[in-house]
Structures are given as C-alpha cells and as structure tokens.
Amino acid sequence: KEKSNNLGVKDAGSEMETEEKGMEEESTRESDSNILDVSSDYPREKHISIQRHLADLEKLANLKEDEKKPCPLCPEEKFKACYSHKLHRHLQNLHWKVSVEFEGYRMCICHLACHPVKPNLVGDQTFSKMGAHYHCIICSATITRRTDMIGHINRHVNKGETESRFITVPAPRSSHEVLKELATDVQVLPNYSTPQKTDSYFNPKMKLNRQLIFCALAVLAEERKPIECLDAFGATGIMGLQWAKHLRSSVKVTINDCNENSVTMIQENCHLNKMKVKLNTKEDDNDEALGDGEENTDTIEVTKMDANVIMHLRSFDFIHLDPYGTSVNYLDSAFRNVRNLGIVSLTSTDTSSLYAKAQHVALRHYGCNIVRTEYYKELAARIVIAAVTRAAARCNKGIEVLLAVALEHFVLVVVRVLRGPSPADNSAKKIRYLIHCQWCEERIFQREGNMVEENPYQQLPCDCHGSMPGKTAVVLGPLWSGALFNTGFLRRMLFEAVQYGLDEAQPLLKTLVCEAECTTSKHFATHSPCDENKQEECGVYIKTPNNSAESYLVPGKRKSDEVIRNAAKRQKAENSAEHPAFYYNIHRHSIKGMNMPKLNKFLCYLSEAGYRVSRTHFDPMGVRTNAPLAQFKMILMKYSTPTYTGGQAEGPLHRAEDVQAGEQVEAAADGKVEDAEFPEDDKSGVAAAVFTKDYPARCAAD
C-alpha cells in the first residue's frame, strides 16, 4: 500500500507469486486426493478447468480493464500477467477452443502442475513440456492429448459411466434413451449402437430389414391363424413388439435372448408398450399384466435360453434369426422343429466375408470359393441360400425361396419350408458351381451331372479362353442356382406394406416385383384380397389376382373344359418362368470413348430386341436380362454416341451422324470392316480407335 510505484510493483509481484504458489499447491493436493479417492461415491467439486461457458472461465481470472491479471490455468512462468483484452484472447484461443465437450461442460486444457513431470526434463524444459493436460469430468484421470481425452470419454460412455463424481447435480439423469419405430417405443442404453459393448444393441439402419420381415409375417398370418413366431435374438425386443402390437391375435410372439440384461430390457420395453409379459415358468401366477382391459392375446412370452436350445425344444411357424455376424451356427436347429409350410427368415451381417472382402472366412463359414465380381451382392445371397438348403436337406426338408435381399449392411433371406425327402432332393439339385470369366465377367452355371468334361471353357458363351493367354475362368461356389423371388408372395407383401403404412419398404418391394417378373412395368395391384381368387402355391392356397378362365368360356361343355385346362397350363407356365440369374453393370461394360444411353432408354432398347429385362435392387446401375453378354455389348454399342472433343457440346442420341456411326459400329462388330465406310473428315476418331476385328476381345481386356 506504499505510494511509491516501485515498492507497489514489488509488493504486488510478491503477493501474486505467493498466491500462484498457493494455487498450485492446492491444485496439486486436489489432483492427488482425486487419484486416491477414485472409488468414493459422494460428489466432489469439479476442477477449475471444467466450466460450462467462457464467461465462467473469465470470472476465475477476475478481469478488470485497468489491472493486470494472471491466467488461472497457466503458471506465471508460462504466461505472465496481462491486461484484460489480452487475457480474454488467451483464454479463448489457448484454452476454450481446444476444450473437450461432454454433457454441456467444457474440459479446457490446463497448464498447472497437476500432471506428473517426466524425470528426464530439467530446468526450463519442465514448464514447457509438462503442462498441457485435461482433467476428466467423470474420473480423476489427467490426459495429455485431446484425441486421447475424447477416446477416454467415449470409453466411459460405452461402459455406461455417464455420471460424474466431481459435478454436484440435484438429480442424476436416467441413462436410458427411448426410441420410437413403427408406433413402438423401446428403451436403449446410450451405447446402443456398439454391439460389442452393449447388451441392448439397436441399429436404426436396419429399419428396412425389420419392415420386410414384418410384411413376410403378415402374409403368413393371412394364410393361417394363429401362428407361433420366434425372435431368437431379441436384444431390445423391438421386432417382437412390433409383431404383437400390430398383428394382435394373429400371432403368438416369443422373444428370446441368452443375456440376462437383455431379457430385463425386453421386459421393461413390454411394460413400456403396455404388453403383458409371460416369463418362461410353469406357474401361471407369475404372469405379469400391465394396462387396463388387455386381453390374453397381447401377452408376449420372454425366454432366456440359447437360441439353439429353444428351437430344439419347441416348434414354431415363423422363425427369425438375426445374430451378430453369420447365422450358419443356428440353421440346423431352426429347421429341426419348424412346422410344415412355415417360414424361416435370417439376416446375415457378415458382409465382409459374403461380399468377398474376406474370402477365407467365406470358405470357413459357408464352404464356398468366391472372388470379387460385378454381381457380388447377388452372389452373397446365393451363398446364404445354398447354406440354408443344405441345412434343411439334412432334416429331410426342402425350401422355396420367397425373398432374397442384399443391401449395404445385411443380407436377408426368407424361405418357406417344405417337408419330405422329395422336396429336399429337388432343392439340393439346385446347388451348383458357377463358371466365371475374369476377362469379360461372363458367367454360367455348370451343367447337371457328375461326368468330368474335357474342356469346361466350352460352357462359357465367350471366347476369351481362345483369344487370351493363360487360364481365364474360375469356378465359384457351390451356389444356389434357382429363383431368388416368389412373385405372388412379393405382391402380397406389397399389399401388407400399403395396409400398415410402411413407406420405406414399398419402393423396394415394387422393385423386387419387377425384378421377379423381369419386366419394366410399373403397374402394381394393391387392391383388397377379397376380390381375388385362391390358387395353390407350394401346397398352400393363396390369394392371387383374378385371372380366371371365365372370359374364355364358349358354349359347349367339352370345349369349355379344354379352354379352362389350357388357361391353367398357360398360367402355370407363366408362374414357373424364372427370372434370369445375375445381372450386368452398364458402367462396367461401357465402351471407351463413347457416351452410353440413359439406363431406362437402354432397357427399352433391350426389350425391343426381344429380351427380358428389368432393373435390380442389388445394383442401381445393374440390368437383369437373359441376353448374352455379346448381344448386351452390341446393343449398348449401337445406341452409344461418340464423345466429342474440342469443347463441342454432346449432341442428341438420334442425330443422323450418330445413327450412321451406330450402323458402322454394328457392321464392324459383325466382322465386316470392309463394308463399313468412314468419311475422310471423321473427327470423332471412331474409325481409328474402335473398328477393328478384334474389338470385342480388346473391349473385354479393358
């Protein structure tokens, strides 16, 4: 308090040093006590580096315009006292911007003597190297790097540790989060999206998968009531809850999981949706009922068993398998006791092996040799169906594939079970090997029979083996060679999707119907099934559009019977016409130096040429057709336009010059180069770069 300026500065400096030393000692004692008392349950005060707002951090510094103040998070050796405007920039840029946020709090970087010093640092290096660290808001740890601090907080969240020991809150917030899907509420943990670290795994990206399975179950519920259905891997129970909530008395739902925490979560979610819960006990008194006026049909049975055990002990009409990864370990149990004409659906999420990224895993799990091809998603679906067929055949059961979908995150297969050795033999005969040309991506299933062929390359439509050096083809499989879709079942699934308002599943089901019929037609019948007649499909009388033969009736009993018989034969032939196997990617087979036509126009060109054609859900740029690859490329070449250079704009598709160039391309492709006349001032470069006799082989090499 001396009036002399020098004495005042010295006294202020000494007071600041003593205050800083005291602050450092207090922070050091606090950090040491935090490390010792990690297991304490009572709340403690948070560290000064943990604040909600930048203004709270500035209050610690007690900023004043006419006084120099030190930084509360830096020692004086690192940052000397300064005026308020400079200290504000320092707190904002050096501490606040590099902070880590968690539940509204900011863990700012701290340079105080809280972190232990490395023994090899002496002198001035101590203050420059040791200071930067973060204080964890949940535990007493001090982390040096920001990325490590973020990972440290994420590990706390994955373990469910979200309550801080250093923040005094009036009431701890619940760690459960409620999600809603298809008018069904489910409680999930904060780490619900990490399957390895949670018991209640819930993936919002699988919503489309759950809607497709719901439609399949709704179709089966229309055939016979009531049906017993099993969700073998319940997790949160979202799928079984949707079945019971919307289908009501048509289904008897059983949700199973082998994890005790998941079973508890399923029971809580049943109570949340006002459903009765029946535990897996023999005493009926233990049944727990919630909700006013609920009937017995709204009861959901929750079991805690291994999936293989419950499928061995009980019989079901509908079984869904959705394990984490491959489902081959549960196929034998699923087909052991499933009822005749029941449905088994399975979701495989091991896409790394099925999509040929881990080929050795596919060989180990499915016994298939595969390579990466342009049709790898359909290849994955046929691999899974082949494994399902072998498992069903071991139980003297055959299958009929109703639906096969392969998208980015999963492969879904839905099959109907046909009991008896004859259906089992017929299904097993459809498992074959595939010959795949690695030059042009042509493919064909091997012929039936056990005789060894002298030259298997003769089965391929292409001649790459004769024009290319070395071995050009590989054998893939064994794979399912039959149909992947059932048109009647898909149409009924589409009708159920419209009835229940499943907007995400409707576009995919429309694409699947077109793909099953191999047509580009966009007309779908979603009318009520009351106006439809019954027809037999795999031993089950189902409802199909009324294509009755009454319109063909003419006077005369014998003639009328003959017309009806012919109409039935014609309808049976149309239903048995399977869609072509696999598809071609239009970008993969585009001609270099040419602009290919639009995909929809190209489909029309193939259809006008007399081939069956449709788009496919496996690939947005894929074309499913029964045209050979050579004809596919020829039509693509015919309707492609040259790529103009020199900044000229691309012309329309049907200009006179382009039509002439298309005719020249077709003539050159037929090997009649001498008949193809090219103008001398041809600036497109087509005559020099494209029209040669060996063009198809060079195109395949490209």
Automatic annotation (TrEMBL):
The keyword tRNA-binding applies. One of its GO terms (cellular component) is nucleolus. It is found in: Nucleus, Nucleolus. The keyword Zinc-finger applies. GO terms for biological process: tRNA N2-guanine methylation. It comes from the Eukaryota. Residues 1-37 are annotated as: Disordered. Residues 136-156 form the C2H2-type domain. This is tRNA (guanine(27)-N(2))-dimethyltransferase. It comes from Rynchops niger (Black skimmer).
